[in-house]
Design goal:
Elements (H helix, E strand, L loop, with lengths): L5 H17 L5 H7 L4 H9 L3 H17 L1 H19 L5 H19 L2 H8 L5 H8 L2 H20 L1 H22 L16 H9 L2 H30 L4 H13 L1 H13 L4 H20 L8 H19 L1 H13 L6 H30 L5 H24 L4
Length: 401
């Protein structure tokens, strides 16, 4: 029997971690009824999985560079498993918030090492394409959770949704441990592997990791805010059940197209900054179509099609942004020994964006009484991302870049 590619196992492990980010959106209406969760509390539940990332991302990167990516990913998946199973026993919003933060730490450890681990497992010619596939781990896991979650919760209740994903994370931890060679945990520069302070200074003293991290924050904040609240937006419009689940899952899933396309285009020599400009431009245009007043004059059916088309444009072509940034991340790392530290710093700012985005959009919706102003918040993020992409392009063209 042919052995499964270890890089594919790493990708699947990332998807199993991303399921824990995506499991919350379809549960928001259920949790609001079962535990009395408010809309703003739901926003924090949605984003609190990123709390560890926004506070400890670079620390987790340093830990990965010291302990090895394989061991770190297994530990992260194990933490996700325990926290999610325990979350199925929660009886209050407060308990769920605490366990959600623990899940965030597990997600952090399970995701940061992956790009560096993939880089060790595949031939150099395959790195760009495989990192494009890795960029799809989040939308794939989110889409699967959005699609499967409502069915599980309608038959077994939300606690079993939490427990089942915990069991899956535990199974993936075991598979990764046996499928990925232990040699991947051996530092490639053993004499320097313990220089924690030096790696941190080297990473934070380089402009490349800062720029890629900030661009990731402008992307992640708007993507999670829009996709995360789609079930609640549909529920307010009277669209519930399987139709809402499928529509949201498709909106999240098409993000993979942009991620994978970015990897292929980069492999063919397309300049990364062009992909970033295209991705942010599509996100701005898609959000304007989805949430702006432009469709109000149309018949209800036509307006719904136009708005959903905007969501698909936002997510699909926006997927070129993370697909490109993961490739840039290993490129801007100041040294081979600092790849995971660089990824940790980027993950930290991505988490900051994901933590801030949903509560801000929820606050804006509460203040205005409508979701129609969402496009202003997301458009501002897209503009900031495009400006930073321009700065990054100039940095990479410079002799020192």
């Amino acid at each position: 029997m042919k052995r499964i590619d270890p890089a594919l196992v790493v990708l699947l492990a990332g998807v199993s971690a991303a399921l824990h980010v995506g499991k919350l959106p379809p549960a928001i209406p259920v949790l609001r009824e079962a535990l009395g969760v408010s809309l703003v509390e739901a926003g924090f539940l949605l984003s609190l999985v990123q709390f560890a990332g926004m506070s400890l991302g670079v620390v987790a990167g340093l830990l990965t560079d010291s302990l090895g990516p394989r061991r770190t990913m297994v530990a992260g998946l194990a933490i996700l498993a325990v926290a999610s199973i325990a979350g199925g026993e929660a009886t209050s919003a407060g308990a769920l918030l605490v366990l959600r933060a623990c899940e965030g730490f597990g997600f952090l450890l399970a995701s940061i090492p992956a790009p560096g681990l993939i880089r060790r497992l595949v031939r150099p010619a395959r790195v760009s394409r495989m990192l494009g596939w890795w960029g799809a781990y989040m939308p794939l896991g989110t889409a699967a959770a959005l699609l499967v979650g409502p069915a599980v919760m309608s038959t077994a209740g939300w606690p079993w949704w939490w427990r089942s994903l915990g069991l899956f994370a535990g199974a993936m931890a075991a598979w990764l441990w046996f499928a990925v060679p232990p040699a991947c945990d051996v530092p490639q520069q053993a004499s320097q592997s313990g220089d924690t302070a030096g790696r941190l200074r080297l990473t934070l003293g380089s402009p490349g990791p800062w720029l890629v991290a900030l661009i990731f924050a402008t992307y992640s904040s708007q993507w999670l805010a829009v996709i995360g609240f789609l079930p609640a937006i549909y529920a307010n419009s009277g669209v519930t059940g399987s139709l809402s689940a499928v529509a949201t899952a498709v909106a999240a899933g098409v993000n993979m197209i942009g991620n994978i396309a970015a990897g292929r285009l980069l492999h063919r020599g397309v300049r990364g900054q062009r992909l970033l400009y295209a991705g942010f431009g599509a996100m701005a245009a898609g959000a304007m179509l989805a949430f702006g007043p432009w469709a109000d004059a149309l018949p209800a059916h036509a307006a719904a099609i136009l708005r959903y088309g905007g969501v698909l444009l936002f997510s699909m072509l926006g997927g070129m942004v993370p697909g490109t940034l993961f490739s840039f991340a290993v490129r801007v790392a100041p040294a081979e020994r600092a790849v995971s530290t660089t990824m940790g710093w980027i993950q930290q700012w991505s988490a900051i964006g994901q933590f801030a985005g949903p509560p801000v959009v929820a606050w804006l919706a509460n203040r205005t009484g409508t979701w129609s102003w969402t496009w202003l918040a997301t458009g501002g993020c897209a503009l900031a991302g495009a400006i930073l992409a321009c700065v990054l392009a100039a940095q990479l063209r410079s002799p020192r870049g």
